[in-house]
């Protein structure tokens, strides 16, 4: 049973017939649901469809318990989906056991084999694939170099630091050169500085190896800085898939907007291609599918709202400054609009005296063109 | 005293030495109860045994206070009653051999049955584990002799097994199981099984099943996952279980006596014989010491093997 399926799928050094499959997504989930039967039934994945492109750095982002790990485990083969099918490079792999899928995982706790050295951990996958000894040795050395761990080759994995274990886990998963690498919050156990370093490192590794990365995190900043595309999940569903810019600037739903970055939600009326804010002002918008005319909720990012002292003019909103929060590179003003709605506005600090209104002052707020997004609630 | 402390000057050195002595003294005092118990319970009887093994047997048991190495010679050699030539004590040697092989068989059998049992218990949901563990310990509640006689009830000619087989018309004549080596191995496996199950259970219970998933993820089949990941990780439990089973098996006494009848003696019975009917206490003492030595050798070998493997990695 030597990786029959794996070879079909072109894993582990086998040349992939790239012309034939170039159009195929690396991973495609079609209407996958996963229900855990227990004392209470948990619908961990609810009709999830997603198509991950080749060589993509794809991130699953969502709050704790939203089903990110479950989706990864379905892709890796540890959990059979209750419904739906999973395709890898166009082949249905829903029924393939994990050891026959050309997919490797970097586990959240690393799951390194404690009874083996660093080198033996990295060699494990290659040995199980029955690679010849010199090839194994060569690849292990390459991997050690790739993650800069040559010096610790013979150490036991229990005798190296967390960051080093993380590198070994990466090297171990990359060594068999899988089609897809799954990473389940691989950076969450690291301190901030190491975490930033590893973010850059991961991007570099993905570029160098050309492997499709599916990365799980609940840190929105990490998702935005690292990914080609992000899927935002909540309660077992994928709410939106898009590039970091799309997700940030044009979140489709209130949940997405709230989860990524800071948000102001304002009441408005939609008619034609424009919205009239209740607090004042008329803006052109793109209307997302499934939003009816009439009363809607719109999103304004704090950095897109500008504030000046004095009474509001035409098309501006008037409000009162409640709090001023200085945070180094920017200052955030917390206002109460005339309609009673709260609003945050952030502006970068310029050298010299600030010209921002102070606490208790009356202020006028305007919003840049294209900065108003209609939300599907 | 280390070199470093010499350089700190005489006064400092003095103080340090005093502190160290006080430390030593309190350590000695604290361990006194343990030392006393070890001396009384282990070293004392052992010394008596060594002493007795170099004395002459008394006429009605006990010993005569005359130095003799005869007991030690008799452990493996015997004098021909007609022409006084020394020859191998075949009876003793075959009993050594039977004890050794039956103990090994018992260890292997308890492992074969114990590993799946331990695995099953360790993979039960938290609430149920305790229940199964409890069941494993139930046999300890009754006396060894009672349990052994229960086995006799199972395997004797008119016992449960033979009667069932006859009833099902699988056999016509009862199978002779009592008073065979099979009976002894069966009985000892039953008696010592918990000693194998419990340490393996402890090891499997500690096993991180995410490592098993990691192995599957890295293309290992179930079988190779078992050999390359599971077995090495639960090995400490297997070794502990094997030691716990092998050592008492080697000296087993009740089970071979009841199930093996008079002729299938094991080492424990041989020793007992010397203190009882044989009335040869020195020989009994010498045989006991030999058994102890054998156990020590086995233990040292185990430690060697396992520590070498650790160094290999
Ligand atoms: N084996 C299981 N049995 C029952 N319920 C489960 C099981 N695994 C996960 N769940 C449930 O499924 C839901 C999704 O879990 P999952 O581990 O995928 O979340 P997650 O998004 O990875 O969260 P986190 O960020 O905390 O890791 C949760 O409600 C969880 O309790
Ligand atoms: Mg998770």
Helicity range of the residues of chain A?
10-25%
| Rg over alpha carbons of chain A | 25 Å
User: What is the CATH topology assignment of the largest domain in chain A?
Assistant: Rossmann fold
Question: What is the name of the CATH architecture of the largest domain in chain B?
Answer: Orthogonal Bundle
Supply the number of helical segments of chain B.
Answer: 13
Structural Rg of chain B: 26 Å
CATH topology group of the largest domain in chain B: MetI-like fold
The poorly predicted ranges of chain A are 1-21
Counting helices, strands and paired strands, the structural category of chain A is alpha+beta
Could you report the average pLDDT of chain A, rounded to the nearest whole number?
A: 88
State the largest interface: A-B, 31 and 18 residues
Strand order of the largest sheet of chain A: 6-7-8-3-9-10
Description:
Chain A contains ten helices and 20 strands. By secondary structure, chain A is of the alpha+beta class. In chain A, α4 packs across α5, α4 packs parallel to α6 (162-174) and α5 packs across α6 (162-174). The termini of chain A are far apart. Chain A has two domains: 3-234, Rossmann fold, CATH 3.40.50.300; 262-374, Nucleic acid-binding proteins (OB fold (Dihydrolipoamide Acetyltransferase, E2P), Beta Barrel). Chain B is mainly α and 313 residues long. The longest helix of chain B is centred in the N-terminal third of the chain and has 44 residues, at 10-53. Helices cover 74% and strands 3% of the residues of chain B. Residues 1-6 of chain B have low confidence and may be disordered. Chain B has two domains: 3-87; 89-312, MetI-like (MetI-like fold, Orthogonal Bundle). Chain B has helices at 3-6, 10-53, 70-76, 90-122, 126-137, 144-155, 160-167, 181-206, 209-217, 222-250, 254-259, 267-275, 281-312; strands at residues 56-57, 63-64, 77-79, 86-88. In chain B, the strands form two sheets. Chain B has a two-stranded antiparallel sheet. The A-B interface holds A 1, 3, 6, 76-78, 97-100, 103-105, 107, 109, 111-117, 120, 124-125, 128-129, 156, 172-173, 176 and B 208, 210-211, 213-221, 224, 228-229, 232-233, 313. Adenosine-5'-triphosphate binds next to β2 and α3 of chain A.
